[in-house]
Amino acid sequence: MSRWLTFLLVCVLGLATLTPTLALADDNAASGDEGQPAHQVNAALELPKMQKILDKIKGQVSGESNDGKLGQLNDMSLELSGNADTLGQALIPQRAQLVAQLAVLGPAPKPNSGVKETPEVTRKRHTLEAQKSKLDDQIKQAEAIKNGSLNLSAQIVNLRRDALKTQLARNSGSIFSAHFWSPLLGNSQDSDKISQFSDELGATIGLSWEDGWRVGTIAWFIAAVLVATLGRRYGEEFLAWISINKLPEGRLRRSFLAAAIALTTLAAVVLAFNFLDQAFTRRQEVSDEVQDFVDKLVQLSVFSGLIAGLGRAFLSTRRPSWRLPAMTNEVAQSLKPYPPIIAALVFVFQGVEAFNSSVGTSLDTTVFAYGMTALLIGAMALSISIRSNRVRRKVLHEGHQPEVKSTLTGLIQMAITLTGIAILVTLAIGYVSLARFLSYELVWTGIVLGSFYLLSHLINDGCESLLSTNNPSGRRIQSSLNIDERHLAQAAALLAALGKTVLILFVVVALLNGTFSTSTPIELMQKAVEFWGGKGLESLSIVPAHLVNAVLCFIVGIYVLRAIKRWLDKDFLPKTTMDIGMRVSLVTLFSNVGYVLVILLTLSTMGLQWNKLAWIVSALSVGIGFGLQEIVKNFISGLILLTERPVKVGDLVSISGIEGDIRRINVRATEIQLSDKSTVIVPNSQLISQNVRNATMGNAQGVVTILLTFPLDIDPVRVREILLEVYNENERILETPEPSVSFKDLTPAGIVLSVTGNVASQRQISGAKSDLLFDILTRLRKEGVVLSKPQTMIIERSKSGNVVVDKLEE
């Protein structure tokens, strides 16, 4: 193998020596009529050799896996491409000379034109045309060899990249091993490459410092420093002044200021690096490799600026009262150094990786750079978690008010801690590439979620402030469109929800695609990847990847469903004219339908096709036949209750001797709360099939009716006045319709009067009736009016045993 490589290398070097000869031959081209120029003879001899070398390189590449030998073959193919291009360019002047000679001779006369030319001219034209045709073929062959060599070089680069990924996916050795730290001891091959590229960077700086360019370089450098320091500071102060003095009072000021801090920091960092780019690489003599490397650094400045800006916006140590997240000032001060440190680490180590890519360093050097990146970022993640917990414990120990940490905040902190531990563990066991991937995904996820948190607050506060009637913009919109205030509140809630939905879509796309890594996570073990794709489980139709995707789909679907349900219940529906019962019914119906859709989507993600659900339908039909009738009947009845709404949440109903308020309509049963605060669970089918009294369906008012029996000798007009006075004096009795007293009946027991009055709701009847009875009895006793006593019959039995009716008493 090495002998073939040596032979090919000698051939390529031999071709390289032809370049001066070809150029010299081009200058000393023969001008004889029939003679062949020297460089044409060389082309006829060298082109077959070049094609033979290209074929041999292709044969070597097809069976080679060593990265070093592939690198040599790539250099040889590039060298061969250059020689073929040089040879083709050398043939072009000769072709032009032949074309000029043919133009002097002119075209051949037509047979019937009557023009004749000498045999010498005809022979000369034929010779020149043959030479031109041969040159055309040689130029095409040289171009084909050039393109073939370039294509082969691109294939070799892809092979080396794939081989590098494969080697990185394997266990490259623990960071505690001596092999990992070997690049620090020096690598001769990498040292030469690094030294060569460093010389190019130094030459670029030297170009920018030459006479005539020095002043511009200094000016661009000073501009970069001023933008990064004074520009960021005064830009932030200006936006803060706008937030305080120009924006309306409310939460928009706080979210706008946080966004302004992040934006000014990002703009300052990016502009500073662009100015530095202009300072050192604005000359045309800068090499493409150096320019590409500097462009990568400028791109990295965007991520570093985002990290630093988001960190300053969240912590807001200069204005603690304007801080968006619920965080104590002690915790914010303790975390203040981390955003700029993480931004610097990302920039430095991504810059080192870009440097290694430009130089083409060896695998050991690349692994070392990956390991150092993952080590420092993982250590920073654990340090953030540990330090924040320590400060919180200190604040609690000193007796200060601890911060109210939500469940989501706790989950985020737990995820950071676990990811940091995972990074260090993978470094310890030797999977350096996986640790580097986890570290950059942790940083990228933090950037994406932090931007979403900031922008979602800004959108929500902006929509609310823009359409609020407390602000001039809202009042202007209300007067222009002549709409009700609650409609503006509904529009604000819808616009905020739409904006958050768009942000969520961007978050999902950003998290799935990533930025720091140009490819998907590297497959660590081929067997694990094959098993993940279902290899070996074909008979069971089980694909682990589909199962995991289904679980993730179910979890995300439930979370989104609950978030939308919470938004409808807390934000949007309260701003409409719907009553609470209608709102609860809509939320419940949406929740039931949403759960069904989430389950169906989860089944589809698992690979279960819709046209293959016949077995599920069959199983359900068998289950319904053997005992699910009641469950299905109650489920359908629940849907009917939610759509037709004969009863709704908040109604006062009576069914089968049970009277109470409906608190919840579930899928299977309805909860009715009684007056003693106990709850009765009634199946939904009973509310559909039985007679139900809904006291609050048609009219929300209640009627308080009291029947009283008075003796026959009372003054009915005076009693009527007393009863009406009692009803009118009670604060629960409505003035419209007015209370009334009606003569119900005249019985031997006395006069029966009915007193009626209306109250605001059915639930006030019992309390109002009790108060009215107390007041009526008190007033009647005060006025000397007594109620009729029931008549009793006294039966006396004589000594002889005869029954004698003595008298009747009341």
From TrEMBL:
Main subcellular location of this protein, as a coarse class: membrane
InterPro entries cross-referenced by the UniProt entry: DUF3772, LSM_dom_sf, MS_channel_1st, MscS-like_channel, MscS_beta-dom_sf, MscS_channel_2nd, MscS_channel_C_sf, MscS_channel_TM-2
Start and end residues of each Mechanosensitive ion channel transmembrane helices 2/3 domain: 588-629
Domain Mechanosensitive ion channel MscS: residue ranges: 631-696
Domain DUF3772: 139-190
Organism domain of life: Bacteria
A molecular-function term among this protein's GO annotations: mechanosensitive monoatomic ion channel activity
Matches recorded under SUPFAM superfamilies: Mechanosensitive channel protein MscS (YggB), C-terminal domain (SSF82689), Mechanosensitive channel protein MscS (YggB), transmembrane region (SSF82861), Sm-like ribonucleoproteins (SSF50182)
Protein name per Swiss-Prot or TrEMBL: Mechanosensitive ion channel protein
Transmembrane stretches, start-end: 218-235, 256-276, 296-315, 335-355, 367-386, 407-431, 437-455, 491-512, 542-564, 584-607
Keyword terms of this UniProt record: Cell membrane, Membrane, Signal, Transmembrane, Transmembrane helix
Subcellular location(s) of the protein: Cell membrane
Membrane topology, record value: Multi-pass membrane protein
Keyword Transmembrane helix among UniProt keywords: yes
Species this protein is from: Paramixta manurensis
Keyword Signal found: yes
Pfam families, alphabetized: DUF3772, MS_channel_1st, MS_channel_2nd
Similarity comment: Belongs to the MscS (TC 1.A.23) family.
Signal peptide residue numbers: 1-25
Cellular component GO terms held in the UniProt record: plasma membrane
